[in-house]
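4.2 Preliminary Data

To establish feasibility before requesting continued support, the project team ran the inverse folding procedure on a target of 168 residues. The structure was first converted into the token representation described in Section 3, and no sequence information of any kind was made available to the design step. The complete token record follows.
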């Protein structure tokens, strides 16, 4: 490991963090096998349905990707919170869940490509001076972990969570 630089190791660890599952359930597990009739249900005591949580994770990640890949200046800031959460707790149709998951994975791959090829600590010229690829990667991971926990809790309350070994 003598040839491994700090940046190479940091990028490796950031990718592992983004992939999830090191200390908690993975997003991929949390979004798998959710029956359509459960996707739009808001569990008692929680503010969002599984559909709203999935879409919020997807929208926020896409926003961070577009912000981070703004070399052409085309990024348009979303309005908080209106543009980050779907209004309806129910998906528009039975294909929406899978389409959202597919889009989330596609955007994650694009962000991971940026991460692999980019400078982690150079501030974005279009940001406020504090934003860089490292910050945005940590933001995605932190945000996703938080809402994955909520999604798991929602699925527990709705009776559809079957944890993998080691993830109660």
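Position-by-position output of the design step:
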């Amino acid at each position: 490991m003598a040839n491994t630089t700090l940046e190479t190791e940091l990028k490796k660890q950031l990718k592992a963090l983004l992939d999830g599952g090191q200390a908690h359930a993975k997003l991929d597990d949390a979004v798998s096998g959710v029956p359509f009739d459960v996707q739009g249900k808001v569990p008692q005591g929680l503010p969002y349905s599984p559909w709203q949580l999935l879409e919020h994770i997807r929208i926020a990640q896409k926003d961070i990707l577009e912000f981070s890949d703004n070399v052409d200046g085309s990024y348009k800031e979303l309005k908080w919170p209106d543009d980050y959460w779907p209004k309806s707790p129910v998906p528009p149709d039975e294909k929406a869940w899978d389409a959202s998951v597919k889009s989330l994975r596609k955007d994650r791959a694009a962000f991971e490509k940026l991460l692999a090829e980019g400078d982690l600590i150079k501030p974005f010229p279009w940001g406020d001076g504090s934003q860089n690829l490292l910050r945005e990667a940590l933001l995605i991971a932190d945000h996703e972990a938080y809402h994955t926990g909520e999604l798991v809790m929602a699925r527990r309350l709705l009776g559809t969570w079957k944890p993998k070994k080691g993830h109660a």
